[in-house]
Please model this.
Amino acid sequence: MDYSLAALKIFGSQLSGATEAPSSEGTSAAQMLFGIRFQRAWIQGVILSASYNEAGDGRILLDDGSCIADLFVLPKEAEGRLWQPGMYVMVIGAYIAAESKENYPAIKVHKIVDLSDQPHREAMWYMEAAEAYNLFYLPFSAASPTP
Model:
């Protein structure tokens, strides 16, 4: 994982537009979206379901308002906290293109935070994602050559 690459603040449905980034020597596999190389996505939404196996691994379905995302949670991330339906959470994790279905992205969770007690969380998220798109992603997208 290349942590020098930013986690894109996006809606899950936007991940369906991601393509495999050209590989270069010494870099790990990555995706391209809006002309930006990335490996991790930052999304927020409401947990629809959560299930855990005996090893402590979890699988969470998250509705971010644009699609349903499939989240894979390792025991380390689930430790001390059971993620439950109805919680509003922020998730940062590796986008797993190979495991993603059309408009149904798969993300291996690196960080998950419960934002349920924040009253304006959802409205703020939509504004943050729109701001990131307008300030950072759109300029890259406009500058990228069209295939």
